[in-house]
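Technical note accompanying the year-one report. For the benefit of new consortium partners, we illustrate the data format agreed upon in the data management plan: each record pairs a sequence with a structure-token string. No post-processing was applied to the example shown here.
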Amino acid sequence: MQIRLILSISFLLLGLATLAQTSANSYYWIALRNKSGTPYVINHPEKFLSQRAIDRRIRQGIPVDQTDLPVSPAYLDTLIDHGVTVVHSSKWLNGVTVSTPDTSLIKQIAKLPFVVSVQLTKPALPKKSTRIKFKDEEVINAFNPLNYGVALTQLTQLNGQYLHSQGFRGKGIQVAILDAGFWHANVIPALDSLRNSGRIMGTHDFVDPTSDIYTQHTHGTSVLSCMGGNLPKTLIGTAPDASYYLFRTEDEPTEYMIEEDNWVAAAELADSLGVDLINSSLGYYLFDDPLMDHSYSDMNGNKTRVTQGANMAFQKGILVFTSAGNEGDKVWRHIIAPSDGENVIGVAAVDKLGIRASFSSVGPAWGGAIKPNVAAMGSSTFLITSASVPGYSSGTSFSSPVLAGMGACLLQANPYSSVKLVKKAIEQSASIYNSPDSLLGYGIPDFGKADKYLKLYTTIPVSTLKTAWEVYPNPFTDMLTIRNRDLLSAATCQISICNVKGVCLWQSNFPVSETIELKNLPKFANGLMVLTIRYGGREENFKLIKTTR
């Protein structure tokens, strides 16, 4: 079922265009000056973010800000009135992708006062790319009696069994996969547990909104199987219990910059839905139009649009994994965007012995930052191949999801850890953390060590350890309801509200009852705050967002 059919939230703006990226039109990126005229305000995030996305921000202490506001509908209407078709927009980068067969319209639009710049991202007559985007090696696997099959090796190399044996296999974690298509993912037996339990949460095709992603390229299916595969005694992925959104952003036959903008649009949708983790086995530096090509100096951690989008996803509380690239044995050699992102976990490839694969792109990022970040098994990774059967494939396209799946398990095991702390834990647990290099970064992570690190350094809110009270709504305006879930022996309780700096804004005592209503609260400034309930020598804390009507 398409995302645009299962969601009705107005912020998605996907209904503005349902036309495919056909050869009849040229495509352009239009950078906007501001968000003037938008009806959205940060005080009402529920108008443009799902509750799950709001909860993720609350849990990690991330405020809603101007970058969360959708682009101005007034600007979009003006662009449409000029005759172009809006394909999708980016709230984070404040820009719009449009299509038109008439270049004269673009010249007119470039002169509009709210337009900063216009850039061609895909020509009207694209040529067939000479590049092979998803080159891999495959060998059909012989039967293996172990429940995980041959895939056990790629799990244990990361000490992933440490989390799996405790029941942390990604349950409750939502993952967005950005890829080129998911051929037959709706019928392949290895993915039937996802389908049967409703854990393929939704799909959307950003290349051609009218298409069926299950009839597109096979690459995304292979990537998904590394994480969500569940074929007992043959193939168990690294996050078989997680839930997945499947987004097509890559137009496999061609290579143009519009794919970066598709990527950002998909990441923004993932954020709005409340996704916890993104895996992107994609990367960019060389295009079919040489004028669009990136240079190595562009791999500086925050220059390309796709890298800016990936960095922003992380800042919104999403853990982001991407392939480092398969350019290590080519002239380019370097990592590719968005794996260069300063907030992105760029993943190199090793074989089952932990030896770097020759094709794995090398760092550092331009300027010297350590890249790739870490490594996982991407040489002869066991997965569902392009033939829709279990077998081997090679590429950083597969080391990334193998590692990302374990990232999902780590998030499940440590729900109150921020993504900044989780990224740090993964890196510090790695095999050569004390002597990182430009080939494997910090090396191969150990998820047992990463979990222990998070247990040591994550502050768990007291309220999560008890279930005595419930506070709602969240976000709130001028009233809160506090429900007593248990029959408490305490006669009275003290309730206080503080800002994030710990300054007490309001405090009062109440007799303990089943329901306590806080009406006509002071006119607090909008934003994140903490409500504390003290009773009988105990204390519970709740993170809340204050908004106005």
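Partners are asked to follow this layout when depositing records. Residues 3-122 form a domain with the Alpha-Beta Plaits fold (CATH 3.30.70).
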